[in-house]
Amino acid sequence: MEKILIIEDEESILMALADDLALEGYEVASARDGLQGLSMAKEKGHDLIILDIMLPKMDGFEVCKQLRQAGVGTPILMLTAKSQEIDKVLGLELGADDYVTKPFSPRELIARVKAILRRVKGIQEQMDVYRFGDVEIDFKKYEVKKKGQPVYLTTLEFSLIGFLIKHKDQVLDRSAILDGVWGEDVYVLPKTVDTHIGHLRKKIEDDPANPKHIIGVRGIGYKFIS
Questions:
Q1: Tens of pLDDT along 189-214?
Q2: d(CA 85, CA 88)
């Protein structure tokens, strides 16, 4: 049974999420402030963390940042009541795997949860080790090194680079990437692909503004060149 930790201070939202996830067969734990959530998340043993941004004692951004700095790689789905793009981008830059904006439907959130957990399993089914340039990706150990130094990728970024590598030298439009990485049952705006491609380039390209491996094809999408 997959375990999900919910870090949310609004009782009505927390209880509704816990009930919906339990009905889907997940084991659920919860925390109602950032400090408690950080402590529980560091204990590991969770398959996914649902993390609200606006929390007492420590906000979700800081929780996410500290978890990634501590080497906790558990996938994080952020919840935010804000619609500003900057909040979503900041969450992704700090290491979140995905985000859902409040108010959201239970169906949407469950679909996102399933998509993230599917990606985690899918990563293990990819090739063992793949090397290109000065980058080495070990899909079994869930590790990336660039010039011999470790690089942290979120589960979504692992899935994204894996999908691009599987279709090496092929031009993939954004719809194909969305279906292959996020899943056909999850609604995500096409520009989300661009955001994640940008983060991925910053981590693995020598010059993200002039990439050699993840190449943009104007008006269509992207292709990977080893």
A1: 777 888 889 989 999 999 999 999 99
A2: 5
